[in-house]
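Expect chain and fold; see below:
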Amino acid sequence: MQVEENSYNENKLRGEIMVYGVILAGGIGSRMGNTEKPKQFLLVGEKPIIIHTIEKFYAIDQFEKIIVLCPSQWVGHTQSIIKKYIKDRSRIVVIEGGDTRNETIMNSIRYIEENDGLKDDTIIVTHDSVRPFVTYRILEENIKFAEKYGACDTVIPATDTIVESTDNLKISSIPDRKHMYQGQTPQTFNAKKLKELYLGLSEEEKEILTDAAKIFVIKGEEIYLVEGEVHNIKITYPYDLRVAESLLKGDK
Protein backbone atom coordinates (compact mmCIF):
# COMPACT_ATOMS: atom_id res chain seq x y z
CA MET A 1 0.00 0.00 0.00
CA GLN A 2 2.60 2.49 -1.13
CA VAL A 3 2.28 5.30 -3.65
CA GLU A 4 4.84 7.55 -5.25
CA GLU A 5 4.81 11.09 -3.86
CA ASN A 6 6.56 12.96 -6.68
CA SER A 7 3.54 13.45 -8.96
CA TYR A 8 1.34 14.57 -6.08
CA ASN A 9 3.85 17.08 -4.74
CA GLU A 10 4.58 18.52 -8.18
CA ASN A 11 0.89 18.93 -9.00
CA LYS A 12 0.17 20.49 -5.62
CA LEU A 13 2.96 23.02 -6.12
CA ARG A 14 1.46 23.94 -9.49
CA GLY A 15 -1.89 24.45 -7.82
CA GLU A 16 -3.62 21.85 -9.98
CA ILE A 17 -5.15 19.83 -7.15
CA MET A 18 -8.05 21.01 -5.02
CA VAL A 19 -8.62 18.80 -2.00
CA TYR A 20 -11.72 18.97 0.20
CA GLY A 21 -12.52 17.21 3.43
CA VAL A 22 -16.10 15.95 3.52
CA ILE A 23 -17.33 14.99 6.98
CA LEU A 24 -20.57 13.02 6.94
CA ALA A 25 -22.70 13.75 10.00
CA GLY A 26 -26.09 12.64 8.78
CA GLY A 27 -26.73 9.84 11.27
CA ILE A 28 -29.38 10.07 14.00
CA GLY A 29 -27.69 7.59 16.33
CA SER A 30 -30.62 5.20 16.78
CA ARG A 31 -28.31 2.34 17.76
CA MET A 32 -26.82 4.42 20.56
CA GLY A 33 -30.06 4.05 22.53
CA ASN A 34 -32.18 6.71 24.14
CA THR A 35 -30.20 9.88 23.45
CA GLU A 36 -31.53 13.37 22.89
CA LYS A 37 -29.16 14.14 20.06
CA PRO A 38 -27.35 12.32 17.23
CA LYS A 39 -24.28 10.38 18.34
CA GLN A 40 -21.84 12.76 16.63
CA PHE A 41 -22.76 15.39 19.23
CA LEU A 42 -22.15 13.19 22.27
CA LEU A 43 -19.12 14.03 24.37
CA VAL A 44 -15.91 12.05 24.37
CA GLY A 45 -13.58 13.58 26.87
CA GLU A 46 -14.60 17.22 27.02
CA LYS A 47 -15.63 17.68 23.38
CA PRO A 48 -18.36 16.38 21.05
CA ILE A 49 -17.22 13.48 18.87
CA ILE A 50 -17.62 15.54 15.70
CA ILE A 51 -15.25 18.23 17.02
CA HIS A 52 -12.46 15.68 17.51
CA THR A 53 -12.98 14.59 13.90
CA ILE A 54 -13.04 18.11 12.46
CA GLU A 55 -9.84 18.98 14.35
CA LYS A 56 -8.03 16.06 12.68
CA PHE A 57 -9.02 17.35 9.25
CA TYR A 58 -8.24 20.97 10.06
CA ALA A 59 -4.67 20.04 10.95
CA ILE A 60 -4.07 18.96 7.33
CA ASP A 61 -3.09 22.06 5.35
CA GLN A 62 -3.88 20.39 2.01
CA PHE A 63 -7.62 20.76 2.58
CA GLU A 64 -8.99 23.85 0.86
CA LYS A 65 -12.15 23.52 2.94
CA ILE A 66 -13.71 21.06 5.36
CA ILE A 67 -17.36 20.57 4.43
CA VAL A 68 -19.51 19.23 7.26
CA LEU A 69 -22.88 17.82 6.19
CA CYS A 70 -25.69 17.17 8.65
CA PRO A 71 -29.51 16.99 8.78
CA SER A 72 -31.18 20.36 8.21
CA GLN A 73 -32.48 20.58 11.79
CA TRP A 74 -28.93 20.18 13.16
CA VAL A 75 -27.10 22.67 10.91
CA GLY A 76 -27.46 25.51 13.40
CA HIS A 77 -26.37 23.34 16.33
CA THR A 78 -23.35 22.10 14.40
CA GLN A 79 -22.32 25.65 13.55
CA SER A 80 -22.70 26.63 17.22
CA ILE A 81 -20.49 23.90 18.61
CA ILE A 82 -17.84 24.51 15.95
CA LYS A 83 -17.84 28.17 17.00
CA LYS A 84 -17.54 27.11 20.65
CA TYR A 85 -14.67 24.65 20.30
CA ILE A 86 -12.69 25.72 17.22
CA LYS A 87 -11.02 29.12 17.19
CA ASP A 88 -10.03 29.31 13.52
CA ARG A 89 -13.07 28.34 11.43
CA SER A 90 -12.01 29.96 8.17
CA ARG A 91 -11.91 26.69 6.22
CA ILE A 92 -15.01 25.06 7.73
CA VAL A 93 -18.48 25.18 6.19
CA VAL A 94 -21.63 23.43 7.40
CA ILE A 95 -24.33 22.50 4.91
CA GLU A 96 -27.38 20.28 4.75
CA GLY A 97 -26.93 16.63 3.85
CA GLY A 98 -29.16 14.46 1.69
CA ASP A 99 -31.60 11.64 2.34
CA THR A 100 -28.91 8.99 1.87
CA ARG A 101 -25.18 8.79 2.40
CA ASN A 102 -24.43 9.12 -1.28
CA GLU A 103 -26.88 11.97 -1.79
CA THR A 104 -25.08 13.72 1.06
CA ILE A 105 -21.78 13.27 -0.75
CA MET A 106 -23.38 14.62 -3.93
CA ASN A 107 -24.46 17.70 -1.94
CA SER A 108 -20.82 18.30 -1.05
CA ILE A 109 -19.81 18.04 -4.70
CA ARG A 110 -22.63 20.42 -5.64
CA TYR A 111 -21.37 22.91 -3.06
CA ILE A 112 -17.83 22.72 -4.47
CA GLU A 113 -19.10 23.11 -8.03
CA GLU A 114 -21.24 26.15 -7.20
CA ASN A 115 -18.69 27.93 -5.00
CA ASP A 116 -15.23 26.99 -6.29
CA GLY A 117 -15.83 25.17 -9.54
CA LEU A 118 -15.37 21.44 -10.07
CA LYS A 119 -11.98 20.86 -11.66
CA ASP A 120 -10.66 17.70 -13.28
CA ASP A 121 -8.31 17.09 -10.34
CA THR A 122 -10.67 17.97 -7.50
CA ILE A 123 -10.45 15.37 -4.72
CA ILE A 124 -12.90 14.77 -1.89
CA VAL A 125 -11.90 12.88 1.25
CA THR A 126 -15.16 11.53 2.71
CA HIS A 127 -15.21 10.47 6.34
CA ASP A 128 -17.64 9.44 9.06
CA SER A 129 -18.06 12.16 11.68
CA VAL A 130 -18.07 9.43 14.34
CA ARG A 131 -14.57 8.13 13.49
CA PRO A 132 -12.59 10.66 15.56
CA PHE A 133 -9.41 8.57 15.79
CA VAL A 134 -8.47 8.76 12.12
CA THR A 135 -4.75 9.45 11.86
CA TYR A 136 -2.93 12.11 9.88
CA ARG A 137 -1.10 9.30 8.07
CA ILE A 138 -4.40 7.81 6.88
CA LEU A 139 -5.69 11.18 5.68
CA GLU A 140 -2.47 12.02 3.84
CA GLU A 141 -2.25 8.61 2.17
CA ASN A 142 -5.88 8.87 1.04
CA ILE A 143 -5.08 12.15 -0.70
CA LYS A 144 -2.00 10.70 -2.40
CA PHE A 145 -3.73 7.51 -3.53
CA ALA A 146 -6.74 9.37 -4.93
CA GLU A 147 -4.51 11.77 -6.82
CA LYS A 148 -2.61 8.88 -8.37
CA TYR A 149 -5.40 6.34 -8.91
CA GLY A 150 -8.68 8.27 -8.79
CA ALA A 151 -10.28 6.39 -5.90
CA CYS A 152 -9.27 4.64 -2.69
CA ASP A 153 -10.83 3.07 0.39
CA THR A 154 -9.40 2.69 3.89
CA VAL A 155 -9.42 -0.90 5.13
CA ILE A 156 -7.90 -3.26 7.68
CA PRO A 157 -7.36 -7.01 7.15
CA ALA A 158 -10.18 -9.16 8.53
CA THR A 159 -9.03 -10.96 11.68
CA ASP A 160 -12.16 -13.08 12.14
CA THR A 161 -13.44 -15.69 9.74
CA ILE A 162 -16.09 -14.15 7.47
CA VAL A 163 -19.24 -16.24 7.06
CA GLU A 164 -21.76 -15.54 4.29
CA SER A 165 -25.42 -16.49 4.55
CA THR A 166 -27.66 -15.50 1.65
CA ASP A 167 -30.85 -16.53 3.47
CA ASN A 168 -29.76 -15.44 6.97
CA LEU A 169 -30.40 -18.96 8.24
CA LYS A 170 -27.49 -21.12 7.15
CA ILE A 171 -23.96 -20.71 5.81
CA SER A 172 -23.70 -20.13 2.07
CA SER A 173 -19.93 -19.76 1.90
CA ILE A 174 -16.83 -19.03 3.96
CA PRO A 175 -14.47 -16.82 1.92
CA ASP A 176 -10.71 -17.10 2.28
CA ARG A 177 -9.90 -14.69 5.10
CA LYS A 178 -6.61 -13.62 3.59
CA HIS A 179 -8.56 -11.86 0.84
CA MET A 180 -11.08 -10.23 3.21
CA TYR A 181 -10.85 -6.71 4.59
CA GLN A 182 -13.00 -4.61 6.90
CA GLY A 183 -13.96 -1.27 5.45
CA GLN A 184 -13.38 1.97 7.33
CA THR A 185 -13.29 5.59 6.21
CA PRO A 186 -11.97 7.83 4.72
CA GLN A 187 -13.05 6.91 1.22
CA THR A 188 -11.47 9.31 -1.24
CA PHE A 189 -12.36 10.07 -4.83
CA ASN A 190 -11.82 12.24 -7.84
CA ALA A 191 -15.00 14.28 -7.34
CA LYS A 192 -15.85 14.72 -11.01
CA LYS A 193 -15.45 11.00 -11.69
CA LEU A 194 -17.60 10.08 -8.70
CA LYS A 195 -20.34 12.45 -9.83
CA GLU A 196 -20.31 11.04 -13.37
CA LEU A 197 -20.51 7.44 -12.14
CA TYR A 198 -23.29 8.21 -9.65
CA LEU A 199 -25.41 10.00 -12.23
CA GLY A 200 -24.97 6.98 -14.50
CA LEU A 201 -26.46 4.54 -11.98
CA SER A 202 -29.89 3.04 -12.50
CA GLU A 203 -32.45 3.23 -9.70
CA GLU A 204 -31.92 -0.50 -9.10
CA GLU A 205 -28.16 0.04 -8.72
CA LYS A 206 -28.73 2.93 -6.31
CA GLU A 207 -30.87 0.67 -4.12
CA ILE A 208 -28.00 -1.76 -3.47
CA LEU A 209 -25.45 0.92 -2.57
CA THR A 210 -23.86 0.69 0.86
CA ASP A 211 -21.24 3.40 0.40
CA ALA A 212 -19.58 5.51 -2.26
CA ALA A 213 -16.84 2.97 -2.99
CA LYS A 214 -19.48 0.55 -4.25
CA ILE A 215 -20.37 3.02 -7.00
CA PHE A 216 -16.92 2.41 -8.49
CA VAL A 217 -17.21 -1.35 -8.01
CA ILE A 218 -20.63 -1.52 -9.71
CA LYS A 219 -19.29 0.40 -12.69
CA GLY A 220 -16.18 -1.77 -12.97
CA GLU A 221 -13.79 0.99 -11.93
CA GLU A 222 -10.67 0.30 -9.88
CA ILE A 223 -10.50 1.42 -6.27
CA TYR A 224 -7.26 1.04 -4.33
CA LEU A 225 -6.66 0.11 -0.72
CA VAL A 226 -5.21 2.38 1.96
CA GLU A 227 -4.12 0.69 5.17
CA GLY A 228 -6.32 1.74 8.08
CA GLU A 229 -5.85 1.33 11.82
CA VAL A 230 -7.61 -0.94 14.29
CA HIS A 231 -8.27 2.04 16.55
CA ASN A 232 -9.95 4.01 13.72
CA ILE A 233 -13.26 2.90 15.20
CA LYS A 234 -16.76 4.04 14.34
CA ILE A 235 -18.66 5.06 17.46
CA THR A 236 -22.03 3.38 17.04
CA TYR A 237 -23.04 1.69 20.29
CA PRO A 238 -22.79 2.72 23.98
CA TYR A 239 -19.87 0.30 24.37
CA ASP A 240 -17.99 2.25 21.69
CA LEU A 241 -18.21 5.39 23.79
CA ARG A 242 -16.37 3.63 26.62
CA VAL A 243 -13.72 2.40 24.18
CA ALA A 244 -13.37 5.92 22.77
CA GLU A 245 -12.86 7.37 26.24
CA SER A 246 -10.08 4.84 26.85
CA LEU A 247 -8.45 5.60 23.50
CA LEU A 248 -8.59 9.32 24.19
CA LYS A 249 -6.89 8.86 27.56
CA GLY A 250 -4.23 6.75 25.87
CA ASP A 251 -3.46 9.59 23.44
CA LYS A 252 -2.62 11.96 26.30
Remarks:
- Residues 56 and 136 are 7 Å apart (CA to CA).
